[in-house]
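In this supplementary section we document a worked example of the pipeline. Step one takes a protein sequence of length 153 as its only input; no multiple sequence alignment statistics are reported here. Step two produces a three-dimensional model, which step three serialises into structure tokens for compact storage. The input and output of this example are shown verbatim.
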Amino acid sequence: MAKRRTLFTVGYEQTPAKAVLDELKQAGVKLLVDVRAVAASRRPGFSKTQLAAGLDEYGIGYLHLRGLGTPKEGRTAARSGDFAKLDAIYRSHLKTPQAREQMDELSSLVMKAGPICILCYERDHRECHRQWIAEIIAERDGVAVEHLRASQL
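The serialised model returned by step three reads:
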């Protein structure tokens, strides 16, 4: 029987870059897919260029699928704790051509490459749009989902 593929997710809130990289390596991740609309961060090691360089040192690839990121109004809703509004905004966003195309790209990568992890900011996947991405891929492709949690500061 073939081993079921797993899609990992991780958030880096209150987590040092090295802890996230170590967690990815321990899980056997080969490609990190950044699903932030804006791949910049005030946190050291998590802006796009720094993150890609750190991943490279660990032998992990990097891909930014900005079309799967939360639109600005959704990020504002999330910061205010309005997760119902975030849900509505993001589900509407997923119907856009760019988001559908990038969801298809992620789905293809999960089935052909592996193991893959999607990254966003929020530590708790239940408060992040990456949970919905993972649920869609799991349902569409029959993959397992595992939410990683690296050591906090």
